[in-house]
Amino acid sequence: MLVDVRNLVKRYGDLLALDHFDLQVVEGEIVGLLGPNGSGKTTAINCILSLLRFDKGTIEVFGQPMRPDAHDIKRKIGLVPQNVAVFDELRVEENVDYFCGLYVRDRKSRRRLVEEAIDFVGLNEFRRFFPRKLSGGLLRRLNIACGIAHKPRLLILDEPTVGVDPQSRNRILEGIRELNRQGTTVVYTSHYMEEVEQLCTRIVIMDKGKTLATGTKEELKAMIDGGESVSVEINFLSPDDLAQIRRLPHVTRAYYTDHRLSVRYDGGEHNLLHLLDFLKARDISFNRVFSEQPTLNDVFLEITGRQLRD
Amino acid sequence: MFWTLLFSLVLATFFYFAFGNLTDRLESFNPIGVAVVDNRAYRNDARLRQVLASLSQPGKGQLLELAEVSEEQAKSLLDTGDVAGVVKVNEKIELVVRQSGIEESILKAILDEYVFMSRTVMRVLANNPAAVREITDRKSYTEQISFSNANPDTMLGFFYALMAMACMYSSFWGLRNTIDVQADLSARGARRSVAPTHKLTVVLADALAALSVSFAEVLILLVYMAFVLRIDFGNQVGYIVLTCLAGCVAGVSFGSLVGTFVRGSGSVKTAVLIGLNMTMSFLAGLMWAPIKDLVSRKVPPLSYVNPAALISDAFYSLYIFGSHPRFFINIGLLFMLSALMCTASFMKLRRTRYASV
Hints:
The structure holds 2 protein chains of 2 kinds.
Chain A: E1 3-12, E2 15-25, E3 30-34, H1 41-48, E4 56-61, E5 64-65, H2 71-74, E6 77-80, H3 92-101, H4 107-120, H5 136-148, E7 154-158, H6 166-181, E8 185-190, H7 193-199, E9 202-207, E10 210-215, H8 217-222, E11 229-234, H9 239-246, E12 251-257, E13 260-265, H10 271-281, E14 286-292, H11 296-304
Parallel strand pairs in A: 3-8, 3-9, 6-7, 7-8
Antiparallel strand pairs in A: 1-2, 1-4, 4-5, 9-10, 11-13, 11-14, 12-13
Helix pairs in contact in A: 3-4, 3-5, 4-5, 5-6
Chain B: H1 2-20, H2 22-27, E1 32-37, H3 40-44, H4 46-55, E2 64-69, H5 71-80, E3 85-89, E4 93-97, H6 102-127, H7 132-136, H8 156-179, H9 187-194, H10 199-228, H11 237-261, H12 266-283, H13 290-298, H14 300-305, H15 307-320, H16 325-349
Parallel strand pairs in B: 1-2, 1-3
Antiparallel strand pairs in B: 3-4
Helix pairs in contact in B: 1-8, 1-10, 8-10, 8-11, 8-12, 8-15, 10-11, 11-15, 11-16, 15-16
């Protein structure tokens, strides 16, 4: 177990930020902490890193209690904070070199690691630039480079893609996957469910400082009643046809409003195919067809009654 | 860094143009034009004629430029502004001027002195003729000497105050360092707090860097004042450099202390630091000189714990005194105060976990 958080409680005055929060991270995982803004993700991370005082609970990292002066543990951790943490007065390569230098003393090794980090995040062309000259996406890449240069065993990223363009975002996510393939365990916090679904091997959904659910994305989606959701644009559908559709296998809900048929399934396979076959057999003409799988937002909605992005 | 240096250089330049040459201007004097009505009474007053003639003798001490003319000519010269005043001797000596100014005041002072001395001499001659010699025999019992092989210049105090201010600017570097090392104040602080580097190493490295930069700025200012503005610091330059170094160390330490112990955001800490710097500078007499003396007499300990007062007093003791015990006491106190402030800051910063980040 790389990270073992048990029964963590943290209060900010009257506000209970972490409410008996648990988190276990096994080596080799990419664990996603998913929750809306204010759910306690960053607070949990800061407690794990020994930046925040907490009121109750235990935190062990690499099998040892985490403390502000636990340098042997800190040596193995890399952090990519939510806010860009670089020096405006230093160029790209100087920034990476500085932060790598806090972990790696040997100049020759450090030189190699800095080159690898800059190449990894794709900032070769920008190595002589000052941070204020970089776009938001490039700045985020620099932020990541500074956190990974020393090749940490445990990498913690706190919402690293906020305000980033799609190209940079994809690059960042691919880079994290590559790091994981190279052996780095990753803890990734985000309120973007698409990223977490795409990237993480295990997901912890949290809200109001509590763990609501944990598991792979398939396990989490299996927790809720809802399965696939299909919408079809139909000019006219008789009540009799609608009743027949409701009797199709695995259909839990079906309704027709504003020239749109919406059908919800509770599992099964090839549901869309069966529905379209039915419509063809009844000679019912249709236009566009939409099919959606359940999302983590659906899971969150099922558990809390709220959207992830409320 | 750029703006604190630029501001100091610009201020030094303004000081130079405002009063850098003030003593020179005081020493260069143009003789005052005066017309005397050449009437019978004037021709009969040999003493007055002798006095006016000696004051208008060409040379270094020439005070007047004399024109003995008729009354109409004198009036004309006064109207055209060629003379500052017209002296007319009748039963008493009259001075006619067109306006009130420095030259007119000097003329009046000369004539008033002449009338006073004449009457005094006449009275003494009537009562005790032997004492007349003592009235005219004037001696000076003071002599100006310089301890620093430079011409003592009261304007130098302003430039010393400017250097003290530049030293205290280094406190902003100290503050910036503490913000960059505290996780609840900056993302950089969070990242550095998570790194496996001993806090003392980080704090010391930052302090050395801040000291290097701020000391370099003060040296640039000193070189600018000495070689471009040609301010004469005499043979005390080495001591001035030492004062600047001690001042920068104190400034960085003070900024670190404020950044560590004052609660609030970076903006709040900056505001508090500015306020404290202004207060310390005021109490050190850098804005209004009499305050320094008042504080020394009424609350002496305050002078010994105020870095701005210690810096300015170190400069002052260089300027006024020939020996250096007082100077070295100030320097020693500056370094001691800095050590205390640094130690307090570090003890607070190490092993810190925050209530909120």
